[in-house]
Amino acid sequence: MQLKNDLLIRAAKGEVVERTPVWLMRQAGRILPEYRAVRNSLSGFKELVETPELAAEVTIQPVDILDVDAAIIFSDILVVPEAMGCTYEMVEKRGPLFPKTVRNEEDLKQLRVADPHEHLNYVLEAIKVTKRALNGRVPLIGFAGAPWTILAYMVEGSGSKTFSQARGMLYTNPTLAHQLLRMITDTTTAYLKAQVEAGANLIQIFDSWAGILSPAHYREFALPYISEICDAINEVPVTVFAKGAFFALEDFSKLNCETIGLDWNMDIAKSRKDVGPNKTLQGNMDPCLLYSSFETIERETKNMLKEFGPYRHIANLGHGVYPDTDPEKVKCFVQTVKEYSHTMNK
Ligand code: CP3
Q: What residues correspond to the site Transition state stabilizer (predicted)?
């Protein structure tokens, strides 16, 4: 299927584009009343994730409503631990909870390297249904969590400000941590390859908890596994988004991937210098900008676009859009990128 709008793919590959592509992390979700209507008619988040037709419907909502240049498959990074044997619950207003955690060798023995076709088939089906429904309008992004971030949830058992149990394991039992990272990496590689086979046009790896590691620990427990996944995915462009990992940007320049995501703490010019000229950068507006007036959103978005320049940039926020954001403000961000970048790229 030929893509009608392939700006995201061309920008990722570093080709000259007529304007900067734009999408938002967490664009499919609670900011849209249309999402909440579907979600509230169900038993919960997991039913939505596990029902391919419904997942496809909410994946496409932001393309219709917000006019973004990409869809991202509606799922969660936590489907991977679940497939490995560590099930999660999504607790209303509190977030994810794992009744069983991985703290010792016995816990590890209960886990398996998952087969995506067997244990994650509902995601692959959702990708196929979404691709058919999109009919080439925009590319579909597939994704997974980076191994360190997945380990963090499996060891901690829930969200946390510090992930001190997970971070502690890197000191108290590094061998166990590496064994778990090995299993997560093998599962994730097979899962992402299956997403590409099912039709994903680009893959994003979310290392949401990169920024809580020391640079030395990041190089030992995170980077090699991400690097391995990047080496395995060659069919489509890959984006690595490691929140808070400003210290790893130079290391990222050597990854076998096309795009590096930046969060809003990262200086654009300094990041470009660290990453080098041969990768596309994605980001990096503070999601809180979208709480401000339309005038402020336009001004700040234009400033961001000027700083990144017309090529090798994919416009996005520096992290997921916050659930209490007015969709009209998101539309203002998207339209400003489209209109202003068009004048820059002439
Ligand atoms: O639009 C999209 O981006 C696609 C869907 C998507 C979800 N989660 C849906 C979701 C994606 C890409 C994710 C990734 C994800 N999930 C990450 C990495 C990105 C990031 O934000 O750092 C992480 C760390 C998770 C884990 C997770 N899922 C948490 C901590 C929570 C609870 C807090 C929260 O943000 O709501 C979730 C739940 C979740 N995942 C929701 C959605 C739409 C809200 C659930 C609901 O509808 O009630």
A: 76
